[in-house]
Amino acid sequence: MRRIITFGTFDVFHVGHLRILERARQLGDYLLVGVSTDEMNFSKKQRFPIYSQDERMEIIRSIRFVDEVFLEESLELKRYYLQTYRADILVMGNDWLGKFDEFKDICEVHYLPRTPSISTTAVIEKIRLP
Ligand code: C2G
Fold this sequence. Notes:
The chain is of the alpha/beta class. It has a single domain, classed as Rossmann fold. The protein has five helices and five strands, in the order E-H-E-H-H-E-H-E-E-H. A five-stranded parallel β-sheet has the order 3-2-1-4-5, with helices on both faces. The longest helix has 11 residues, at 15-25. It is globular. The protein binds [cytidine-5'-phosphate] glycerylphosphoric acid ester. Residues 7-11, 16-17, 20, 36, 72, 75, 92-93, 95, 114-115, 118-119 line the site of [cytidine-5'-phosphate] glycerylphosphoric acid ester.
């Protein structure tokens, strides 16, 4: 039984998000997803996500590749989450390449290629344009 863990905001859910969850789940048997809190986003980006943390959690929980969802309160707690949820593999998109290598002492760390040409920002821009 291989437990996979991944983290993200997953704001304005799109197919890039879906595909990384699907590919993460294929690496093992059980997928845990840490959804970042509204506060964590505010302190990182000085703005709140479009969808609230409760809405983002509800969407992620309903995805069939996802087995369990929890709130990620801070980037600094990553080691604590990996240990608490007994993760065998940490998966992140390759925009985070190398950033989580320090956890290779307790689990495998995989960076998967991002889906090209789609992002929450691109979706917001597209809606905003007349
Ligand atoms: N992603 C992807 N392809 C895209 C866009 C996003 O594969 N076109 C992936 C990202 O690489 C990430 C996941 O989808 O692994 C979630 O992306 P974000 O919501 O942008 O997550 P982020 O704000 O980077 O959260 O502890 C880490 C944080 O919670 C990271």
